[in-house]
Amino acid sequence: MKNVKTVLAAAALVAMTCNAQADWVGKASYYSGGRTASGGRVGAYTAAHRTLPFGSQVRVTNLHNNRSVVLTINDRGPFIGGRVIDVSTTAADALGFRSAGVAHVRVEPLSVAAR
């Protein structure tokens, strides 16, 4: 029984580690102004993600032009299917998709904040 618990604990640890380091590929959109779910405000290099803890940092890369920025998660969203992240308007400008409104991106977790 002890070995089963050890194996299950190890499997859970591996699953959490792999999940925390997973990249997301999908659509990004942008948003501006107002309060965020973390109680702060949308900043120059902030973003909204559905599951990453507030304070986590991610690298977002526009797969069309290979531009990337590092953003801090401080809000929840996006709430539209197929989208993996909402970024600030400043970040959308830096990524080169503000005029298009949406871009195909890769989101790579750099540091995952404690919950």
Automatic annotation (TrEMBL):
It comes from the Bacteria. Pfam families: DPBB_1. Its EC number is 4.2.2.-. Residues 1-22 form the signal peptide. Residues 26-107 form the RlpA-like protein double-psi beta-barrel domain. Lytic transglycosylase with a strong preference for naked glycan strands that lack stem peptides. HAMAP family: RlpA. This is Endolytic peptidoglycan transglycosylase RlpA. It comes from Methylocystis echinoides.
